[in-house]
Write a structure and sequence with these properties.
The chain is α/β, with parallel strands linked by helices. The chain has helices at 21-30, 57-61, 63-67, 71-86, 110-123, 132-136, 140-149, 164-177, 195-204, 242-247, 276-289, 307-321, 331-334, 341-355, and strands at 6-15, 18-19, 36-37, 48-49, 99-104, 155-158, 183-190, 233-241, 254-263, 298-300, 326-328, 357-358, 374-375, 380-381, 386-393, 397-405. It is 35% helix and 20% strand.
């Protein structure tokens, strides 16, 4: 078993599979893709996205606060409230100086920027909102959570593209291990499904163009995959040292046992063809946890549904773990949540080892012939209850986390 004194005591989720942990888990385990044609992308060459269903910020946060926050921060506050409540913590009962916030985000608030740019063009600079910068700056993700919960310890946002959420959790792990914090709220949030951003991804050829079958567009590891589907959402995890959680009678949901990070130093968007950077991150996470690949029962793959990335990652998983673990990519349901992906998938890994169930990989009709993995096609039991969650981002930035049953 892994050696770790850091535990997850609270979870909060806002995903295309549902709002809240139980709704999200149910949606993920159903294997029902969230992708649909998106009216906000009507003028775009690719019009598919995975949106959070029924997200009413005014109802969830109150109208005044909702109006002052970009969508990516709205998601995080909702997830953060759920996580803190799940952990059985209240800000009135903690020393705020010993509480940190570390969040991941790739892009901040592009929705606000695009909307205010239209105001600039149509009406002039004098009509730009005074809240433009506070709403769109990526650091406001951690800043708002710090204000929400009176957390006056370290507060920061990690920007490592699609590895951001996983790296945020790794940094939080280190803050607890070295004694700088007693509690850390960590995770990621993203709301990048905007016309400009999606046009950029389309021009790169990164998006699935399965417009006639949106729900079948995100198909990790499938031989007919043709690109990812963009999604949105957030995850917040409450992390504590085991002894502190035990002393206050908290229920650890899982161990956060290991973390590894690396850089490919290869290309601005493409992964190293041999996956050497990702492999270094995975092996570093296993070493950090004090376990070998043969002890892992589940891999939550980055699995974006792009032709190159899935194949490279599959080779890494095979080299590190052999044919032992059951592999899944939850992006078949949620799409790719960019900087939030690593945090959401870490939270799903917590639920997998806690409940002993690996979620399915949606839309896997026929496995890519070169991918030699045991990929879960339906909810399946996992043993041993130890999971590795992989993340990789533009710029060749990689991160891996080890999660184990408590």
């Amino acid at each position: 078993m892994p050696r770790s004194d850091v535990v997850v005591t609270g979870l909060g989720l806002v995903t295309p599979a549902g709002i809240g942990v139980e709704s999200s888990w149910e949606g993920i385990c159903s294997g029902t893709p969230a992708a649909a044609l998106d009216d906000t992308l009507a003028a775009n060459p690719v019009r598919i996205s995975c949106r959070v269903p029924g997200f009413d910020a005014a109802r969830l946060l109150g109208g005044r606060l909702a109006r002052r926050l970009d969508r990516f921060v709205q998601f995080a506050v909702v997830a953060g409230r759920e996580a803190v409540a799940d952990a059985g913590l209240t800000p009135a009962g903690w020393d705020g100086a010993r509480v940190g916030v570390v969040m991941g985000c790739a892009d901040g608030g592009p929705g606000t920027v695009e909307a205010q740019h239209q105001v600039l063009l149509a009406e002039g600079a004098q009509y730009i909102s005074a809240l433009l910068l506070p709403m769109q700056l990526p650091n406001m993700l951690a800043g708002q959570l710090s204000m929400e919960f009176g957390a006056t310890g370290p507060s920061m946002v990690v920007a490592t593209a699609c590895a951001s959420g996983a790296n945020a959790l790794g940094i939080a792990l280190d803050l607890l291990r070295n004694g700088r914090c007693d509690v850390v709220l960590a995770g990621g949030s993203e709301a990048m499904v905007t016309p400009l951003v999606m046009a950029g991804f389309a021009r790169m050829g990164a998006l699935s163009r399965r417009q006639d079958d949106p729900k079948g567009a995100s198909r990790p590891f499938d031989k007919d995959r043709d690109g990812f589907v963009a999604g949105e959402g957030a995850a917040v995890l409450v992390l504590e040292r085991r002894q502190d959680a035990t002393a206050r009678g908290a229920r650890p949901r899982a161990l956060l046992a290991g973390y590894g990070a690396s850089a490919d130093a290869h290309h601005v968007t493409a992964p190293d063809p041999e996956g050497r950077g990702l492999e270094r991150a995975v092996r570093a996470a296993l070493d950090d946890a004090g376990i070998g690949g043969h002890e892992v029962g589940h891999v939550n793959a980055h699995g974006t549904s792009t032709p190159v990335n899935d194949l490279v990652e599959a080779r890494v998983i095979r080299r590190v773990f052999g044919d032992g673990p059951l592999v899944t990519s939850t992006k078949g349901v949620t799409g790719h949540l960019f900087g939030a992906s690593g945090a959401v998938e870490a939270a799903l890994s917590v639920l997998a080892v806690e409940r002993g169930v690996v979620p399915p990989t949606a839309n896997l009709t026929a496995l890519e012939p070169e991918i030699d993995l045991r990929v879960a096609r339906e909810p399946s039991p996992v043993t041993p209850r130890i999971a590795v969650s992989n993340s990789a981002g533009f710029g060749g930035q990689n991160a891996a986390l080890v999660v184990a049953a408590a």
